[in-house]
User: Fold this.
Amino acid sequence: MPHRLGTTMAVQISPSILSADFARLAEAAAAVSNADWLHVDVMDNHFVPNLTLGLPVVESLLKATSLPLDCHLMIEDPDRWAPAYAEAGAGSVTIHAEAARAPVRTLRQIRAAGARSGFALNPATAVEPYEDLLGEIDMLLLMTVEPGFGGQKFLDVVLPKIRRARALIERHGGQIWLQVDGGVAAETIERCAEAGADVFVAGNAVYGAGDPAAAVDALRALAAGA
Ligand code: DX5
Ligand code: ZN
Assistant:
């Protein structure tokens, strides 16, 4: 297990409610009470070609669940909107490198509002140019599909970047969480864990399963054993 250089890695599962019934989000949250986070995909139909939900729904979800919310902002102007998600009470707020114009300021504002700061890279975005930003980041998110939709096929092409990101993180002290999002399922989660990911988003693999809580446990066991 070459990636386990640090001592701080622990497997966390963050089910994505994008694959749940949007008319029953409170029930969807309750169905995965054994998860570590609830992953909330905010899409604006500009940064990605899909439209989901925004701050009012996040505010309602915060009242409906005790799971911390992992808000993934796939929106064109995260500098403008991200701090409000943190102020509302989200536990983690992730902005995209491709969309942020002032990522250092925005990541600092997220932290100042009491949330963990997340920074996301699309499959074709290299991690190396952001090495100097690692001190501003609590979680690095590597997309393993092109963002926009659940249920897509995992992109193996991202695996070498997961390894390189893990090495950068270890060089930086090992405290930053490394999240993967897209096509993460029983068939792919071990590859991600072996490459160095420690936080796993899963939409279809959790909410497409007959028993979402059992799916969370099964994914956790696979990742921990990898
Ligand atoms: C895709 C979203 C993901 C999505 C993952 O743009 O960011 O969080 O819900 O869904 P699955 O696990 O089905 O690929
Ligand atoms: Zn996501």
